[in-house]
Amino acid sequence: MAVSEINAIGAIGLQTRRELILDRLRQAISSGQLSAGTHLAEVELSAALGVSRGTLREALRHLQQEGLLTADSRGRLSVRVVNTREVEEIFAVRDALEGLALQQICKLEDRTDIVADLHRQLDRLRAAEGDFAAQLDADLAFHARMCELSGNATLLQTWRAVSGLARAAITAAGAETALHNMAYQRHLPIVELIASGDVASGKAFLAQHMDEAAQRIIKQMRLAAPAAS
Fold it and tell me: How far apart are CA 19 and CA 34, in angstroms?
C-alpha cells in the first residue's frame, strides 16, 4: 500500500511538470515571445526550459495536436502561421458551435445559476485586463464554459478540438487587436441575452461578435503584410 501511495504522488508531480511546460510554451506562443513561423529547435528549447528532450517532445506533440504548431516535410516543428482565410474559418466554426450552445442554454426554464456562472467568468475576464496572457486565458475560458453549460458533451468536445486554432487566430494580428477583441464590454451582452432567453437576438449578436473580431484581425494582418494575404 505504501509503495502504491508513493507512486501515485510521483505521477501527480510528473503531470504537474508537464502541464507547467505546456502552459509556458502556450503562453510564449500567444504573447508573441515565440512568434509565428519560429522554428522550435529541440536542443535549444530543452536547455532553455531545463527539461529533457523526451519531456519536451511530449509537450510539443500536444501543442501540435492543439494546432499551435505545424510540422514541415522533415518533421521540424514551427509556430503555426495563420492566414486570413483560416481566421475567417475558425471564427465561423466558433460561431456555429457557440450559437448552438447559446440556443440550448436559452431553452432551459431556469437559467439563474448558469447566468451567475457566466458572470463570474466575465468578472475573471475584467480582472485580467492589463495582463495579456491571463486575459487570453479568461476569454477562452468564458467561451468554453458557455459550451460546457449547454450540456452538450459533443459540442464541448468539438469546441475544445479547435481551441488551439482559436488561440492562434485571436493573436494572429498582435496583442493590441487581441486585447480589443477580448474586452469585457464586448462579452457582457452575450450573458445578458442568455439571461433574457432571446435566442434569435443572442445568436445574431454572437454572429456579429465573431465576425467583427475576425474582420478586425484580418484587417490588421493585411496592413502588416499585404503581399502575404
Answer: 18
